[in-house]
Amino acid sequence: MIPVFRPVIGDEELASVLDALKRGEVSGNFGSYLERFEQRFAAYCGCKHGIAVTSGTAALHLAVDAAGIRANDEVLISASTNIATALGVVHNNAIPVPVDSENVTWNLDLDLIESLITPRTRAIIPVHLFGHPVDMDRLIAIAQKRNLIVIEDCAEAHGATVRGRMTGSFGHMACFSFYANKVITTGEGGMVVTNDDALAERLRLLRNLGSAQPRFVHKVAGYNFRMTGYQAAMGLAQLEKIDHVIEQKRALAGRYRERLSSVRGLKLPVEAVWARNIYWMYAVTVTREFGITRDELIARLASKGIETRTFFCPMNQQPCLLEIQGFRRIPCPVADELWTTGFYLPSTYTLTDDELDQIRDAIIAARA
Asked: What are residue 226's DSSP bridge partners?
């Protein structure tokens, strides 16, 4: 079986985690690894502050709360995304509003944003889908014009850039995931980065149960979203390799492109001239010209020992969102089509040429 992804963990990670454990950096805010990881990752993103948390989902939840978004406020989000983006809104009792995708990068369609804004709209969460960034210069201009808070969902885009500037450094806050299949991993884990001192203070307060002085007196109902020291130790070791990982992911995309660009009916991922796509996963869509459906192709690849994943079910179709009072049932035809035609291929950057040839041959054989 060629898995859709396999985390790459080396001796450096093992040594770093073991050192943290020996130092007793097991839970709470003890030791140095957590602070060092936060500082270095924030600096990598071009931000002043990093607040490490238990997951990318927790990062989104925390950021929405810290932004002061409250019950019945509306937050525009990318329609094509993992449900976590919407959950960060829902669990703060606000209402997610899906913005349909555009058909080139598959990110949210910036042409639609202003038409969806109402007096209740407080924020927008753009998702840098599969590693290709949203045009943040244009989005920020719209947000400033309409007085919207911007929270970037960078779960899949560590190191992606817009005109040379890092994703994560544009919005009021940005949320990253360090899940096992992300660009760098701490197993589970996430981080919020920001350049705003007041937001950083609020995020740290909320992350740690709302604990302030005097101890055990809580004026704010916070959360226990703390990352452990040994997770941070692993993240620190992974961060040392991030440039190499991104280089290899981009190289893998090039190797796929060489093999698949001539396959009719298969639409490959793009890279806008102003962007650096880090190709978190090598995502493709199947058109009618291919001759069989996406699901039939996935089944045939599975029979050859090749694991894949479909694109995300769009937010306008999610049953748990449709039940929310006040949820707007906005048509998202492009995101709907991506849900039925899109999938990603094995994307571990250590895949060999022989494995890539096996994947290519299986795709071509399925088409025939």
From this structure: 53
CATH 3.40.640.10 fits 11-239, yes or no: yes
* In the block, residue with structure tokens 């994943």: 309
HSE-up of residue 278 (Cα within 13 Å, Cβ side): 27
366: CB partners within 8 A, 6+ apart: 292, 296, 297, 300, 301
**Which has the closest alpha carbon to 78: 288, 273, 281, 314?**
314
SS3 of residue 125 by DSSP: strand
CA pair distance 268, 4, nearest whole angstrom: 17
Tokens encoding 30: 């003890």
Alpha helices in the chain (DSSP H): 11-22, 33-45, 56-66, 83-90, 113-116, 136-145, 197-207, 229-239, 242-260, 294-303, 319-322, 333-341, 353-367
According to DSSP, the β-strands at 190-194 and 173-177 are antiparallel
- pLDDT tens for each residue of 246-305: 999 999 999 999 999 999 999 999 999 999 999 999 999 999 999 999 999 999 999 999
What is the side-by-side order of every strand in the sheet holding 165-166?
165-166, 161-162, 275-276
Return the CATH class of domain 242-367.
alpha beta
* Phi, psi angle pair for 95, to nearest 5°: -115, 120
Residue 177 has which token pair?
């995931």
Residue 221 exposure: Cα atoms within 13 Å on the Cβ side: 2
* CA–CA separation, 61 and 44 (whole Å): 23
Q: What is the pLDDT of residue 27?
A: 87
User: Where do the domains of the chain lie?
Assistant: 11-239, 242-367
Cα-Cα-Cα-Cα dihedral sign, residues 281, 187, 351, 238: positive
Going by the DSSP 8-state scheme, the letter that residue 188 receives in this structure is: S
Q: Is the pLDDT of residue 61 over 80?
A: yes
CA dist 276 and 315 (Å) reads 26
